[in-house]
Design brief:
CATH topology of the largest domain: Rossmann fold
Strand content: 15-25%
Largest sheet: 6 strands, mixed
Strand order of the largest sheet: 5-6-7-3-8-9
Distance between the termini: 48 Å
CATH class of the largest domain: Alpha Beta
Low-confidence stretches: 295-302, 543-558
Shape: globular
Number of domains: 4
Number of strands: 20
Length: 626
Amino acid sequence: MPVSFLQVDNLTKSFGDLVLFDNISFGLAEGQRIGLIAKNGSGKTTLLNILAGKESYDSGSIVFRRDLRVAYLEQDPFYDGNLSVIEACFQSGNDITELIAQYEKVINSTDHSNLDAILQRMDMLQAWEYEHRAKQILAQLKIKDFNQKISELSGGQLKRVALANVLITEPNLIILDEPTNHLDLDMVEWLEDYLQRSRLSLLMVTHDRYFLDRVCSEIIEIDNKTLYQYNGNYSYYLEKRDERISAQNAEIDRANNLMRKELDWMRRQPQARGTKAKSRIDAFYDLEKKAKQQRDEGNVKLEMKGSYIGNKIFEAKHVYKSFGNIKILEDFNYIFARYEKLGIVGNNGTGKSTFIKMLMGEVTPDKGEFDIGETVNFGYYSQDGLVFDDQLKVIDVIRDIAEVIDLGNGNRLTASQFLQHFLFPPEKQHNFVYKLSGGEKRRLYLCSVLIKNPNFLVLDEPTNDLDIMTLNILEEYLQQFRGCVIIVSHDRYFMDKVVDHLLAFKGQAQIKDFPGNYSDYREWNEIQTELEREKALLDKPKAEKPQVIEKQSAEKKKLSYKERREFEELDALIPQLEAEKAQIEAELSSGSLSNDELITKSNRIGELISDIEIKTMRWLELSELA
């Protein structure tokens, strides 16, 4: 039977009159990988913060297994900008870094009474090798300058440092809040593969549906303050959730039909009712509550049609752009077609957002131009465009742009009606912006872009912080949108559903124009990589192959005298170093060392660990030739 890692019972959380969730219960056992899904503003991040001990709750209980190692990746991690990357790994406040700090404090004091217990925990958590593990994982995440200041990192690099901090401690359970935000596609796929291969237990919030489908085996949904559990991945969840919604709607239909009959009976009753009818009257009011339940998901329904757009959209003519040695575009030419839906993909730093900003006139090309058609009316959703006056009400944000929107064919929507299509009910519309969650602010920003009724949408990372329900409807809207679309996104699922054409930015002004969606491009790219590898093998001079084999064979048969001596010395030296390390560990655990001896031995054990690793790697190299 799986070991229970976490049990949550009857958990309730509210902010004033706003109840996020009410008496929810769930458990997480060893090996479980749970994805948490809910609309923006339903309390996903709040729940994770509560579990991480960063927020309080109204009532209920949360119980973790004793000595469980838990790591938490926040949605927007923060570190002191003056710290270096490696220093940030020692400032993250996890169990190991706190233990190392305790150890340093004890050996620099005269009170060694609890040193034995600290040393035992240091051994158990493998704290002696913490820095080495940190550098290994940072390197895998393509962070190679360990002395770089945190203030100099991009958003994607900062997220990778935070992710490294989560993985370094080798936790039993990790809690991830939007782990793919700000990561480029290579890093998203690396993390996806890492989690699939690991034995970690997991609780995660993410809008990346491919990531969710491939990593999680169970889904928890918070809907209307209630929790629903599904024992399957995201694809299974979609199927079962649809069945649940259909069943609920059918029940509401039955309640409405029955209520009409009961209402007729209530009206026909005389004013002085007998006690015999009281139970039926009470049942009527219960039935009325059920009939008034929300019968649909209140999804975003974006039925607007873009204004007229002519045949000329834009043409890029011999465009050049670079920043120092980093080339973004070099003699770039492109004619954008009417109603084209173009996706832009590539690693961080390859120039995707710069390309968009040049098109929008925010960045000037070094040479060349973007010639834009006269009928083009841009709607621009940028990564850094989320700027609202927090003291404004939601309704006023939209009214400041337009009181009404003309949908064509004589149809109009008021600002309030428009907001309701974006899951902002009337009571929420009169809230101040500062009360909105991060995802709700993103939804309001999207609303502020679309109410202008553009005919050319330019969306730079639109999926970050939007809930899956909003994404589904946005995808449907973009598929039917009678205008032009350019999307920069790391969300593979979103790109697959919306775009029919890609520009893949590979860095240093290398851009692949590809007809198809992201999955098509990835499959093509893998085939091309394999073909190039096979071609490289075939192109090698034939005489070279036997010569290499013969050389390797000769090397394997006989090392040089100097290498043979080195190999034999390492063979004898490594066990001695291992023995010295074990001896020092025993002495550190004995509690009999003086303060000076503790410092000397602690420094020596760090040197030994590094020395053993270097010599072992060299021994392995020589052993392959021996």
